Amino acid sequence: MECKVKWAGEGMSFTAQTGSGHSVTMDGAPEAGGRNLGPRPMELVLAGTGGCTAFDVVLILKKGRHDVRDCEVSLAAERAESDPKVFTRIHFHFVVTGRGLKREVVARAIELSKDKYCSASIMLGKTAEITHDFAIVEA
């Protein structure tokens, strides 16, 4: 996996070019010299973690031939007050929509992601207390 990050040459804007050919603009807050043109780098870390675990949960449910129709995960994070301002707590709230999904099946998919598959959340778990909860919506 590769990524290149280049300063835009003004303020605190940077463009990341991923190995898969996608670009994303990151920027700092105005009080840090940014112009708010894109998400903050740590917001992208959080978003990537949410994407990683949601991907796992959907894939696990699909492989188990469960009728999953949607998966949304909201993340709420706290960071350390002093540098380095690592994440210290992250709470994941999943809303999984499908037909006939059983609580124990969804819980198991989330646990497998947390304990075995989601590299991002496992990595962040080295500094952050990570908690999960979920709701199931019948489609």
Automatic annotation (TrEMBL):
Coiled coil: none
Pfam families: OsmC (PF02566)
Alphabetical list of InterPro entries matching this protein: KH_dom-like_a/b (IPR015946), OsmC/Ohr_fam (IPR003718), OsmC/Ohrsf (IPR036102)
Signal peptide: none
Protein name: OsmC family protein
UniProt source species: Azospira restricta
